[in-house]
Specification:
The chain has 474 residues and is an alpha/beta fold. It contains 17 helices and 20 strands. Bound molecules: S-adenosyl-L-homocysteine, iron/sulfur cluster (SF4) and FE3-S4 cluster (F3S). S-adenosyl-L-homocysteine binds next to strand 14.
């Protein structure tokens, strides 16, 4: 869809545009990307930044200084979508600044864009561009048209066979210890509460050769850990199974640690479980979202497994890699969830003893079956959802803290990520289980060092470096 603002002039003026040819309209302009949501969005934001930079634009940190403000948004729950709505409100131009040579252009990308489409342009008259995840490769051209005065919505899904995954530039990750690598997009599952299949479309796997080329490029740029990302990596089929992809990635020279997210319990196969026994570079941490500890609620959620199935998979994982750190997602107050069913969720968390639990109150999302049937299944009042959430979080925090405290006095291997965010005289990195460690030491980002843990809180460990670890790098 295209709407035109006839009176809008390009900030550089038409002369500059004609002199420089295609995409020259963008040369010298600045952009600022704000990212909400999950790692898919973090990855996509970096690809968008690369595309804009290649078109001659330059990144700036402050929204106020940017010619183009791009919000990469999340629609998974009400809270992240509200953040976008309120930011859009704050970005409303003051009277008189909407037209004219130096008007800032405003774009919304990501899942809110894909979910709301043209409606967003109608609701926010000062918005210039709505761009869905599949339109990312067309971003420079769309932004150029926005600077030329058009209002555009591009949220069409690209045909499975025509879609090309944008490839990361290794320069973007130089100096980083850890980097994300997309292995697939979309989701073919139909969990009753979830908007993601609507915002990210059908599953599509990135060809194995492309994934490996990206990982190799990153390793050459100094990256030591890759996190393979997709909404359900179990269904990866880019020329091999996901377990086989992990084997291939672990053969890349320079890569010392491999992680992935997310895996849905319903199709977690034995080959992926066995990969934890086979591949030492595959880190001992596994995010396996369970959502609920009640079989009735799980069936209503259309998750495709029972609590017994889930626990059997966990037993196998723990047998394959003793000590593996398990994390999960839980939804509190799903429509119809009774107090007794919620207590089953608490019991499951106490039984599994998760390293970390990410929990959310149920949030009805437009277009999902849980939103359509909420009243029929039984709305859980907001205060009750929050009470359940808080109870769960308190129990999960205690368990998490006990794992952290068990590390005190031990030497753990840490991949150094950089200078600590809270204290400039300390470094920070992660344990194999993915716990954050702040420590005193003298290593550089990308080095693997041993750190003796002196104290623990529920969100970080603290320690002192004890010499170099495996894979000391020049
Ligand atoms: N693909 C991932 C999940 C992506 S969404 C997976 O299947 O594991 C991340 C988490 O957000 C979900 O695991 C779920 O716990 C939560 N979530 C998704 N939709 C939600 C909703 N409508 N209300 C509350 N939480 C939700
Ligand atoms: Fe959503 Fe379920 Fe797909 Fe995860 S597997 S993205 S929760 S529909
Ligand atoms: Fe949010 Fe979209 Fe990720 S809805 S969780 S940004 S896939």
């Amino acid at each position: 869809m295209t709407m035109t603002n006839d009176s809008d002039a390009h900030p550089l003026g038409s002369e500059g545009a004609e002199a420089n040819g295609a995409l020259s309209l963008l040369r010298g302009l600045s952009f600022c990307i704000q990212t909400f949501g999950c790692q898919m969005n973090e990855y996509d934001s970096e690809r968008m930044a690369e595309l804009l930079t290649r078109s001659g634009m330059r990144p700036v940190a402050e929204i106020e200084q940017a010619d183009l403000v791009l919000l990469n948004t999340c629609a998974v729950r009400e809270k992240p979508s509200h953040k976008v709505v309120s930011l859009l409100g704050r970005l409303r131009p003051r009277q008189g600044t909407r037209r004219g040579a130096h008007r800032q252009r405003l774009a919304v990308a990501g899942c809110v864009a894909q979910h709301q489409k043209e409606e967003l342009l109608r609701q926010v008259p000062w918005l210039d561009l709505v761009i869905g995840p599949d339109a990312i490769p067309r971003l420079p051209e769309l932004v150029e048209r926005a600077f030329d005065g058009e209002r555009i919505c591009d949220t069409s899904f690209t045909d499975r066979h025509a879609y090309a995954f944008p490839n990361a530039q290794s320069e973007t990750v130089r100096g980083r210890a850890s980097a994300l690598v997309t292995v697939m997009k979309g989701c073919n599952n139909g969990c009753a509460y979830c908007v993601v299949p609507r915002t990210r479309g059908r599953e599509q796997s990135r060809p194995k050769a492309e994934v490996l080329a990206e990982v190799r490029g990153m390793a050459e740029a100094g990256v030591r850990e890759v996190v393979l990302i997709g909404q359900n990596v179990n269904s990866y089929d880019g020329g091999c199974s996901f377990a086989a992809l992990l084997s291939a990635v672990s053969e890349v020279t320079g890569i010392e640690r491999i992680r992935f997210t997310t895996s849905n319990p319903h199709d977690l196969g034995d080959d992926l479980v066995e990969a934890f026994a086979r591949l030492p570079k595959l880190m001992p941490s596994f995010h396996l979202p369970v959502q609920s500890g009640s079989d009735r609620v799980l069936a209503q959620m259309r998750r495709g497994y029972t609590v017994a199935d889930y626990l059997a998979r966990i037993d196998k994982l723990r047998a394959a890699r003793p000590g593996i750190a398990l994390t999960t997602d839980i939804i509190a107050g799903f429509p119809g969830e009774t107090e007794a069913e919620f207590e089953e969720t608490i019991a499951l968390c106490e039984r599994v003893r998760y390293e970390n639990v990410y929990s959310f109150v149920f949030s009805p999302r437009a277009g999902t079956s849980a939103a359509r049937h909420e009243a029929e299944w039984g709305i859980v009042p907001h205060e009750e959802k929050v009470r359940r959430l808080e109870k769960l979080q308190a129990i999960a925090r205690d368990i998490s803290l006990s794992f952290a405290q068990a590390k005190v006095g031990q030497a753990v291997e840490v991949l150094v990520e950089g200078v600590s965010k809270t204290r400039a005289d300390r470094l920070f990195g992660r344990t194999p289980e993915s716990r954050t460690v702040n420590f005193e030491g003298n290593a550089r980002a990308g080095e693997l060092v041993m750190v003796e843990i002196a104290s623990a809180s529920s969100n970080a460990l603290f320690g002192v470096q004890r010499g170099a670890g495996r894979g000391h790098l020049s």
